[in-house]
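Section handout 9: paired folding examples.
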Amino acid sequence: MSLLVAPEHRPTLREELAGLPNRSRGVAIAVLALLALAAVVLLARGTSEEGTRVVVEEPIAFNLRYPDSMKRIEDDTLFHLERKGVDEFIVEPLELPAYRGDVGGVLPVEASREIERLRERFPQLELVEEGKVRINRVAGYSLAFRASRSPRLYGRLVLLPEPVPGARSGVKLLMLATPKGGAGKARDVGTNGLLKTPYRSLRFGTEGP
């Protein structure tokens, strides 16, 4: 077997260990075994899902994950997470009016109506960015905004219809974050901080990835 190892790759681990006293060789093998085990554990952690997984079945089925440090609030929304004074994640039902053609044509119109509703809650609201978005291959429409300047509060509203032809139902995702929640600007909401986990993990239906 040693003939199969190129000279530039010598000495091999076996040759290195063979040159050690029996006691030292045993210790070295034990250390290497522990390092290998630690690598396997870290790899398993890296590929496993973090946080809590939740499934909502009615009136529209979806599932997502969220960090354990976020508190679930029981209210009349479909799903609500909060870290008081830091960030917030709210899921509400989306009901679109009757339309013809692709749903992408009606979403900007519905988004303009949603902005007016948000202004009732945040009189200082300033729209920063809007446009198409995809969440786990589902097409939607996103609005990024500044909710207030003092205190600094930023938000993102995403309209996400079900991925079926002619869909009129779906979910509205409202995310709010302060600088403590990782939002230094409106575009950071949902892309930085803990809000990224529920936002990017949301899927329609009851089955996760």
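Moving on to protein 2 of 2.
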Amino acid sequence: MNKRQSRIFAIVATGIAAVAFLGLTLHSHTRFDELTNAADITPEITHGKDVWHKYNCINCHTLFGEGAYYAPDLTKIAQHRGEAYLKAYMRDPSQFYDEQRHRRLMPTQNLSEVEIANLVKFLDWVSKVDNQGWPPRPILVAGGAVNVAAQGTEQGVAQAQDVRPVSADSDPRAIGEHLFRTVVPVCTACHSLQPGVQLAGPSMAGMAERAALTLASPDYTGNATDVEGYIREAIVAPSAHLVPGAMFSADGVSFMPNTYPESLTDEQIDQLVAFLGSMK
């Protein structure tokens, strides 16, 4: 190829790339309203966005992977945590930490109840945007399910996903563990399997023993009569019994999502119960 041919090739290739870029950009703009559920944007959601900017939340957090990486990405936080948890957390983050043990990095912003409610609505809207899987993995901080030092590596991705295929004839406990790590909202976003590691919810280590003690306590307010029934109740009706004094509920409502009866089959719930019941 001589110089003239090389020049022509470069010009044509650049022209084709420019046309493709413009075409894809125009196509994206025709789909933005659909992908972002723009029709669902209310004045409250818009105000929640203004609250997000007013308190400079993006200085620590990210949305869709954009922002600071000092604290977790909040793109799907409304699905992972739920409204009750988010409202209680925003009112007083210090209640969710042992400052001597974990260091409380989230400041108390003294948001008004209206600001909190609308910020939660904004985050709920964000969580429903079709972001086509971006960011590609949870962005966690110390104390989460993934070691921060491993993020960005194959080890970190494997830990974050931790999805191991199970065969149809697997032990129900093995299938239950698989569900625990993959069901949406993902259980590992709030619960650790390690003793003494408390995230948004209690550790699942020793679940069976704690369930037995709870059932024997006069403070138990649910309807279960055995350990398996208690674990099932905690999954399908999490507000049936609230642990006294624990920051896992607010205003009589558990932070545990109450949507699993709709998103899981009875068989899948049985498998989760089998796995959690094996946590001695």
